[in-house]
Amino acid sequence: MTMDMIGWVATAIFVSSYLFKDPMALRRIQALAASLWVAYGVIIHATPVVVANLLVAAIAIYSSLASARKPRALPITTAGEPDRSRTSSPYS
Predict the structure, then answer these.
(1) Which of 6, 17, 53, 72 would bridge 29 by S-S if both were Cys, CB 3.0 to 4.6 A apart?
(2) Smallest Cα–Cα separation from 81: which of 67, 92, 71?
(3) Any idea of the CA torsion for 20, 13, 54, 59, to the nearest 10 degrees?
(4) What's the predicted TM-score (pTM) here?
């Protein structure tokens, strides 16, 4: 893999991260892309690229792990009733 390919793959992964709806998946994909950018920055000897993406990767990993530890509330419904907690209709 050429050094330019690492940059292009990092770009593709980063852009694709915006297609994920789950915030945790988005952060993990962005951390992966930032890690590739770090590798690319090391190869081309670009300290600003390395530092910026180390920060992005660290924050993405930290926030992903913090979200994983946080308990998620589940909507409570009575038996037989549909879950209307995700609808925005004023008639619900």
Answers:
(1) 17
(2) 92
(3) 0
(4) 0.68
pLDDT of residue 64: 85
Tracing tokens 């994920």 back to the chain, one arrives at 20
What 3-state DSSP class applies to 46? Answer: coil
Rounded-to-integer distance, Cα 39 and Cα 23, Å: 24
pLDDT exceeds 70 at position 9: yes
Q: Which of 29, 17, 14 is nearest to 60 (CA)?
A: 29
Cα R_g (the chain), whole angstroms: 19
Residues present in the chain in total? 92
Q: What is the pLDDT of residues 38-79, one digit of tens each?
A: 999 999 999 999 999 999 999 999 998 887 776 666 666 666
